[in-house]
């Protein structure tokens, strides 16, 4: 185990606590920017409501991080918006705002109940290495239409294409050159650098106005239970669960923390409740991020207390709507580049997992992964006319490429190519 300056349950001096917490905060703030696309797509050009959406996200992330530090897994792990829920929210958007977030809250409640009831271990058995690899790939495949729309929705398409390619190549070159704590700052560097570069070639937008957000924005959603949307979100939550388990285990093993089962149970329960809260507020839900080991190794500080100032800092971010409003002005092109960076990392993790787990040994194993990915890609780019012709009750499931892919990989893995003893 690494020689830490401060171990898991050691409380650093107040000055050091603030400095370490600030490092976590600098990494956490840009994570919310990736969901700015949800505010733009759901509230069009209403900057006030977009700002309110991001404020709510900061509140949810801050409260969840503090709850994890005191009552959950009690590990130094950064919390951020779950990328897989972006897929669920955008795929079911046509069913209505309230139906989408009611389903999200329901998924969080189910995750909480699984965690406290002891059924979590039984559910996890479904997710073999090949299923997990496929799910990581599915997130990338099904976000492709969203990224294409972001990259080419505004401005000159030729400029956007060239800017996109140059930015993606540049960010991975920068990522390779950075080391230590600097490597965890890649998203920050990408966000600031790409935004500045974009506005060197394009006019600056007008100053944002947040007037009316508190008056016209609803604090909570109205209950609207749509069974098909709920089923689609439950499948998305399986992927969120995999992400959560991986993040907890990676940091637990790194810090040498005991009581693995208890930490996992409490951590998943807190994330479940965090998603219930976010669903009621009408915003995307939280999950623990896997970048945490990189921050711990670079700072050599494993104290769980360092994420407390970070959680408080996220809550404070929500108290400054004028500052949050500027985040809504980030160009769609830059948001598309951010999402691309994230899904490329997930896709690379999937390929790396194939090598590490030796999961693909036969052609049937390869088919188990390839078939769902291909089906999901086709569904993701399905013409609107086809989607509209599907039965209304099944539309939220059949038009969600991620959901179709997950159902298909589970069926193929456990039934079609099931190894006979």
Automatic annotation (TrEMBL):
Transmembrane segments: 21-41, 74-93, 99-120, 132-152, 158-174, 181-201, 221-242, 305-327, 333-354, 366-385, 397-418
Keyword vocabulary terms for this entry: Membrane, Transmembrane, Transmembrane helix, Transport
Predominant subcellular localization, coarse grouping: membrane
GO cellular component, one term: plasma membrane
Membrane topology category: Multi-pass membrane protein
Superkingdom assignment: Bacteria
Gene Ontology MF terms: xanthine transmembrane transporter activity
Keyword Iron-sulfur: no
Compartment list: Membrane
Family as reported in the entry's similarity comment: Belongs to the nucleobase:cation symporter-2 (NCS2) (TC 2.A.40) family.
Protein name from the UniProt record: Purine/pyrimidine permease
Phylogenetic placement of the source organism: Bacteria, Pseudomonadati, Bacteroidota, Bacteroidia, Bacteroidales
